[in-house]
Design goal:
heterodimer; A: alpha+beta; DNA polymerase, domain 1; 2 domains; 5-stranded mixed β-sheet; B: alpha+beta; Aldehyde Oxidoreductase, domain 4; Aldehyde Oxidoreductase, domain 3
């Protein structure tokens, strides 16, 4: 069965025809071409598909596309202003917090959600915030350092 | 038409030959980081081609069975299905079909069975057919309509069962390699490697103190976050393009060509970004199906493996191992004899090498007598594939615990015991040849002076202990190629034939900038496809940084030599009298920049500098790691409190990248040490095929990893670079096991060392 879904993605109103079996992840990647959001497991275990729904981090693979009707979604494509990077993105570059890059979009969005609700998180709070985002390359240290540096620069 | 550069070339480096380096060795961000943090980096699953359709694989539902029939008629009849293929659509590849691959070549027969089951299925999840359909929903429905009739065969679930005298043979046609006439192979053996030196029997008899252990390591998975994916497209003239997530464009091309019966002139492999690989993306898996489906349908075909498939037979995990080690020593702590037996579970196809595993464990120690025997054994489980320092962690889990036992028996500091027996430059390696330049002694001394070793363990309410272990990895060199062309504004453009899986583009931009004496931003580096770059082997075995640095530096010097001849004409001076520094040639007070030179001579023809590296000296990796752990005897929970990794990297091309490799590698090792293991039932059914149940470390599971870099350069290698990425995964399980032993007095001999196994060990020891 098909359904038209209308939602706000990165500040733009978008309409897409979706299969009712499709997830928000499929809608974003295949219907809207926003392939920055990655699929690593398809069942909410790896966090690669993390997007913000009404500002909260959500695994896009766990939400049906039709459930996103009317929702405000932020994907990795909506984080930078043009080519001016979000401080979290810049910090990940500076601190070497991205290697293969596949988990990076999800990490960026989890970190932004954290800093929005807690501008001065402890190291443990940072680790907790990204605990749903599996990274197999970095061992997490340089990601944690990057997020901490963003918080520090703001305070 | 050549134009003036938008800005002057930025001189950065000193002149050639001056080893006071300007770009190499600096802490620099990755040149490709921007596309990663914005989600623009392109992986095959992101690629959209006009008219693209979806391919999917039908997988074996039995672990060991004869394929009696595959009826695809119902699937073909489904609306939206465009093609169905089985083994009948691919050429038969005989055992011993050797293709160029690495140091010794590879058997395409193994690749063929990993990708396509024929006549028999050897593990659950082995591919038996594939479909192409208009979307993923139709493809999934079509898979359910393929009817495979099996004749079940008895399942061989583990190595013990496989070696039993009456065990069913997985490969009756296979002749096990490396056995003598008087020494018959066990059932289902793939092959044997024996390394011996001295009189082991006498040395063991004369030894006064022993450290011994028998360990089991469960199968673990590489756990790359990007599942395997590819896109294939065939044009009406038979030219096929394959976009892949692979560790080697050329190895993918030749494997796919052979498996599909295609001449390589008709296949181009374009390597896209790789979302983690760690050894698991060397063999082809989906690629032959994608190519054949694209040829049949005339449509681009995208295939993406899901996580369940990835874990359940769609990709090869690392080998399970059973290892026994016995080390004999004199009372003064001098090791005199080393004996080891290494069994690797190769899964459904024979041929997993055991040599490196054996070397990885014993290489750090000098001994007069040595006997190491390794065998790979076939079972009805996925064919194992490489995983970062393949076999190293399993080997060290046994060997470094045996050394620790020896230290306890001798009542000697474990670091002092290593100091007394450490291999040095020139001492004999397990394979019998002398060690090239190594810095193990300086690694041990660095540990001895570091607070991670000299600080007392922080007090806590639960038992705590400190563990220590050494690590070694041989690595490989193989061959790498690069070429350098010059842009019209005088900037070097580097094309590499090897895939970037660990920051190679950044490191090679540094090398090219250094060679040209330019700033990093004035160099362009890209990974070529198989039709635009020179043959290079897989990005594996910690080899690319070194060998590509050699190729790129040779290519830069070749280009500069060509430029020198042109500059000589311009400056009216003999070429050999020209000085070159920072992007300009000069002679007798006159000079010409590369920008000016190219602006005025581009029309004389392209500058193409070439560099090929082969048989470069090995970049042997040696290190040591120290951990403090806390063990809860009630629950068996092990918490890693502090972790320090020491490594001799020869020379760190880009320190944050090197640290990042070490941190990530250690954390992978900690994952296998504590939580990661395939849980098979007696019918070789995997019971934890998800990233929830197969638990790789999260940010909350691991402490910060402190990294200490040491630099003992390798002679004959540009900048003296050693391999980096594999060694750090070797010690962690042994480090943790040794720390647990010192915390609660029991040995953990089965990894992962889950809370359940910690509790079992305590119960066995009568301590809980």
């Amino acid at each position: 069965m098909k359904r038209v879904v209308t939602l706000d993605v990165n500040g733009e109103t978008r309409e897409a025809l979706t299969d009712t079996r499709d997830t928000l992840l499929v809608l974003l990647r295949d219907r809207l071409g926003l392939t920055g959001t990655k699929e690593g497991c398809g069942n909410g275990n790896c966090g690669s598909c993390t997007v913000l729904v009404e500002g909260e981090p959500v695994c896009a693979c766990l939400m049906l596309a039709c459930e996103a009707e009317g929702a405000r979604i932020t994907t990795i494509e909506g984080v930078a202003h043009g080519n001016t990077l979000h401080p979290v993105q810049q910090a990940l570059i500076t601190h070497g917090g991205t290697q293969c890059g596949f988990c990076t979009p999800g990490i960026v969005l989890s970190a932004i959600a954290l800093l929005d609700r807690d501008p001065a998180p402890s190291t443990q709070a940072i680790r907790h915030a990204i605990a749903g985002n599996l990274c197999r390359c970095t061992g997490y240290d340089k990601i944690v350092e990057a997020i901490a540096a963003v918080a520090e620069a703001k305070s | 038409m050549s134009q003036a550069p938008s800005r002057d070339l930025e001189p950065e480096g000193p002149s050639l030959g001056d080893r006071d380096l300007a770009v190499v060795g600096k802490r620099l961000p990755r040149v490709d980081a921007g596309e990663r943090v914005t989600g623009r980096a392109l992986y095959p699953a992101d690629l959209v081609r006009p008219g693209v359709i979806i391919g999917a694989v039908k997988r074996a539902t039995e672990a060991h069975a004869r394929i009696i029939d595959i009826d695809t008629s119902r699937a073909r009849a489904l609306k939206g299905v465009l093609a169905v293929v089985t083994a009948a659509d691919f050429p038969v590849i005989a055992p011993g079909t050797i293709i160029p691959f690495g140091e010794t070549g590879a058997d395409a027969w193994v690749s063929s069975l990993i990708a396509i089951a024929r006549d028999k299925v050897l593990w659950r999840g082995q591919p038996v057919a594939a479909v192409a359909a208009i979307d993923a929903h139709v493809a999934e429905a079509a898979l359910a309509l393929i009817d495979v009739t099996y004749e079940s065969l008895p399942v061989v679930a583990d190595m013990r069962a496989a070696m039993a005298p009456d065990a069913p043979l997985l490969h009756p046609e296979w002749t096990p390699k490396g056995f003598d006439a008087g020494d018959p192979p066990p059932r289902n053996a793939g092959g044997r490697t024996l390394i011996t030196r001295g009189d082991i029997a006498t040395a063991m008899l004369e030894a006064e103190v022993f450290g011994a252990i028998a360990t089991i390591s469960d199968t673990a998975h590489q756990g790359y976050i990007e599942p395997m994916a590819c896109v294939a497209e065939a044009d009406p003239q038979g030219n096929v393009t394959l976009w892949a997530s692979t560790q080697g464009a050329f190895p993918t091309e030749i494997q796919t060509a052979v498996l599909c019966g295609l001449p390589q002139s008709k296949l181009k492999v374009i390597p896209l970004e790789v979302g983690g690989a760690f050894g698991g993306k060397i063999n082809v898996h989906l690629e032959p199906y994608a190519v054949r489906l694209a040829q049949i349908t005339g449509r681009p075909v995208k295939m993406v493996m899901n996580r369940t498939e990835t874990l359940t037979g769609g990709s090869g995990p690392a080998a399970a191992a059973e290892i026994e080690v016995r080390i004999g020593a004199r009372r003064d702590g001098r090791i005199t004899s080393i004996e080891g037996r290494y069994l690797l579970d190769t899964g459904g196809i024979p041929g997993t090498p055991t040599t490196l595993v054996m070397q990885a464990s014993a290489a750090c120690y000098q001994t007069q007598a040595l006997r190491l025997e390794g065998m790979d054994i076939c079972t009805n489980k996925p064919r194992t594939e490489a995983y970062r320092g393949p076999g190293g962690i399993q080997a060290a889990f046994a060997f470094e615990q045996a050394v620790d036992e020896l230290a306890l028996k001798l009542d000697m500091c474990p670091l002092e015991l290593r100091r007394r027996n450490a291999s040095v430059t020139g001492s004999t390696m397990p394979i019998g040849t002398p060690f090239p330049v190594i810095g193990l002694t300086s690694v041990i001394e660095a540990v001895a002076q570091h607070p991670c070793w000299t600080d007392p363990i922080a007090p806590g309410t639960l038992p705590r202990g400190r563990g220590f272990a050494l690590g070694y990895w041989r690595g490989t060199s193989m061959t790498s190629a690069a070429h350098v062309t010059m842009s019209g504004d005088g900037r070097p453009m580097v094309t590499m034939g090897a895939v970037d899986i660990s920051g190679t583009r950044t490191a090679m931009a540094q090398v090219a900038a250094e060679e040209f004496g330019l700033a990093l931003d004035d160099v362009y580096v890209t990974t070529g496809d198989t039709k635009s770059s020179g043959y290079s082997d897989v990005s594996a075995g910690s080899r690319v940084g070194r060998t590509m640095a050699a190729a790129v530096s040779e290519a830069c010097r070749d280009a500069l030599a060509q430029l020198r001849r042109r500059a000589a004409e311009k400056l009216q001076a003999p070429a050999e009298t020209l000085a070159y520094a920072r992007g300009a040639f000069s002679a007798r007070g006159a000079s010409i920049t590369l920008a000016e030179l190219m602006r005025t001579t581009a029309g004389e023809g392209a500058i193409i500098g070439k560099g090929v590296s082969s048989k470069l000296p090995l970049g042997m990796e040696i290190g040591a790691q120290v951990a403090d752990v806390e063990v809860d005897p009630e629950t068996g929970q092990v918490t890693v409190l502090r972790y320090t990794a020491f490594q001799d990297v020869g020379r760190a091309l880009n320190p944050p990248a090197v640290e990042g490799q070490i941190e990530g590698s250690v954390v992978q090792g900690l994952g296998w040490a504590l939580t990661e293991g395939f849980d098979y039932d007696a019918q070789a059914r995997l019971r934890n095929a998800s990233l929830l149940d197969y638990r790789i470390p999260t940010a909350l599971d691991v402490p910060p990893i402190e990294v200490v870099l040491l630099e003992t350069p390798v002679p004959g290698v540009p900048y003296g670079v050693r391999g980096v990425g594999e060694m750090p995964i070797v010690p962690p399980a042994a480090v943790i096991a040794n720390a647990i032993r010192r915390a609660i007095g029991v040995r953990l001999t089965h990894m992962p060392m889950t809370p359940e196994r910690v509790r079992a060990a305590l119960r066995m020891a009568g301590k809980g």
